[in-house]
Design goal:
In the C-terminal section; belongs to the transferase hexapeptide repeat family. GO terms for molecular function: glucosamine-1-phosphate N-acetyltransferase activity; metal ion binding; UDP-N-acetylglucosamine diphosphorylase activity. The chain is an alpha/beta fold and 395 residues long.
C-alpha cells in the first residue's frame, strides 16, 4: 500500500480489554501488520495511555500533515479490535480498484461503518477532530458532494464490531479466543475440550503441549512441548518447561523448569524458579524462591524468600518464617536436606547439606551439614492426669 497512512481515532472504549489486551492495541497491531504507519487521534485522557504504549499521538496538525503526504488515509475507530490486517488490505484493494473517494468498512449486521479508506484529495479542508471523530458525518458530507462511495461488508461481524459495550466485548473476546485456539490446534497443541480455555494474544504454546479445561494463560507466558496444563490452571507471565505438569495451579511471573510436577492447589508467586523434576503438592505456596532439581514439597507448606537445593524433602506443615513485621529475610537449605513435619525455619537461617530437622521444631539457628536440628520441648507424661482432670470437672 504505497502512499497510504492510517489514523486510529478516539473512542471512549479504546482501552477496553479484549482478552486482556486493550482494543486499541489490537487495532494498532492489525494496521502495522497491513504495512501502514499509524497515528492515534485520542479522546480525552487517552493521549497519555497511548504515548505510554509508544503509539504516535496525533493532533489536528499531525493529521493534516499525514493527509498531505498520503494519497489514501485509513480512518479506523480505536476500539475496532478484530478488524485484522487481511480486512484492511481487502478494503484498500477494492478502494483502489474502483477508484472510490471513500470505501466504508461496514458491519454486516448493523450497517455501521467504524472504518473507511478515504482518498485524501476528496477530504474537506478542515477534518473533524473532536472526540469520537464522526466518520458517519464525513461520509454524509462526501455523499452530498457527489463523491464516489462504496460500502463493503466485513467478512465476519466481529471484524467490524467495536468494543463499546459489555455485550460487544464478550463477543469480541469469544471471537479472539477461538481465533487463538484454532491457531494452536493447527500448530499441534492438544486441546481435548475448550471449555474455559482462554489464551492471551501474547502467549506462546509449543506443539505437543496439552491445555485441559479451565486453563487460562495470559501475559507473556510460554509453554514448552509436552507440558500438560490444567484442569483449572491460571498462569500469567510464566515460563513453563517441557513435560511439566500443572494441575489446579496459579502462577505469576515465575519460571517452571522441565519435568516439574505441580498441584493440585498450588500458588506460585512472582520471582520464583521451580527446578527440574520438582514436585509441589496440594496446598503449597512458593514466593520469591528458587527450588532446585528433584526437591519434593508434597503438602501444606509455605516456602517464601528461600533458596532450596537439590533433592530436599519437605515434611507436611513446614513454614519458612520470613517476615518480622518490619523486614524480610531469606532461608537457605542445602542439597539432600530433610525437613521434618511442622518445622518452622525462622529466617535468616541455613540448613546445611544432608542435615535433618526434627518434626515440630522451630529452627532459629543454623543447622550444620549432616546434623540433626532439634528445637522442641522434651515430652513429659503425667500419669493419671486425665482421671484427676475429669473428676474435678464433674464437681
Amino acid at each position: 500500500m504505497e502512499h497510504a497512512a492510517a489514523c486510529l481515532y478516539g473512542a471512549k472504549s479504546a482501552f477496553s480489554p479484549v482478552l486482556w489486551k486493550p482494543a486499541l492495541f489490537w487495532a494498532a497491531d492489525a494496521v502495522h501488520a497491513a504495512g501502514l504507519d499509524a497515528g492515534v487521534l485520542p479522546e480525552n485522557d487517552d493521549a497519555a495511555k497511548a504515548a505510554a504504549a509508544k503509539l504516535p499521538v496525533w493532533d489536528a496538525a499531525a493529521l493534516a500533515k499525514a493527509c498531505v503526504g498520503a494519497k489514501d488515509l485509513l480512518l479506523l475507530r480505536g476500539d475496532l479490535a478484530l478488524v485484522g490486517a487481511d480486512s484492511i488490505r481487502a478494503a484498500y484493494d477494492a478502494h483502489k480498484a474502483n477508484q472510490n473517494d471513500l470505501t466504508a468498512f461496514c458491519c454486516p449486521d448493523t450497517g455501521d461503518a467504524p472504518a473507511a479508506w478515504v482518498r485524501t484529495a476528496a477530504l474537506p479542508a478542515a477534518l473533524p477532530t473532536e472526540p469520537g471523530f464522526p466518520l458517519s458525518a464525513l461520509l454524509l458530507r462526501l455523499q452530498a458532494a457527489g463523491a464516489r462511495i462504496q460500502r463493503l461488508a466485513a467478512p465476519v461481524a466481529s471484524a467490524a464490531l467495536c468494543a463499546d459495550t459489555a455485550g460487544n466485548r464478550h463477543l469480541l473476546t469469544e471471537a479472539a479466543r477461538w481465533q487463538i485456539l484454532a491457531a494452536l490446534l493447527d500448530a499441534g497443541v492438544e486441546i481435548p475440550a475448550a471449555d474455559g480455555v482462554l489464551v492471551g494474544p501474547d502467549v506462546a504454546v509449543e506443539a505437543g503441549a496439552t491445555l485441559l479445561p479451565g486453563t487460562i494463560l495470559r501475559g507473556n507466558t510460554h509453554v514448552g512441548a509436552g507440558a500438560v496444563l490444567g484442569p483449572n490452571t491460571l498462569l500469567e507471565d510464566c515460563d513453563v518447561g517441557e513435560n511439566a505438569r500443572l494441575n489446579s495451579t496459579q502462577g505469576y511471573s515465575a519460571k517452571i523448569l522441565p519435568g516439574a510436577n505441580i498441584g493440585p492447589f498450588v500458588h506460585i508467586r512472582p520471582n520464583s524458579v521451580i527446578g527440574e523434576n520438582v514436585h509441589l503438592g496440594n496446598f503449597v505456596e512458593v514466593k520469591n524462591s528458587s527450588i532446585d532439581t528433584g526437591t519434593k514439597v508434597s503438602h501444606l507448606t509455605y516456602v517464601g524468600d528461600s533458596d532450596v537445593g537439590k533433592r530436599v524433602n519437605f515434611g507436611c506443615g513446614t513454614v519458612t518464617v520470613n517476615y518480622t513485621g518490619k523486614a524480610k529475610f531469606r532461608t537457605t537449605i542445602g542439597d539432600d536436606a530433610f525437613i521434618g513435619c511442622n518445622t518452622n525455619l525462622v529466617a535468616p537461617v541455613r540448613v546445611g547439606e544432608g542435615a535433618y530437622t526434627a518434626a515440630g521444631s522451630t529452627i532459629t539457628d543454623d543447622v550444620p551439614a549432616d546434623a540433626l536440628g532439634i528445637a522442641r520441648a522434651r515430652q513429659v507424661n503425667k500419669e493419671g492426669w486425665s482421671r484427676r482432670f475429669l473428676a474435678d470437672k464433674k464437681k
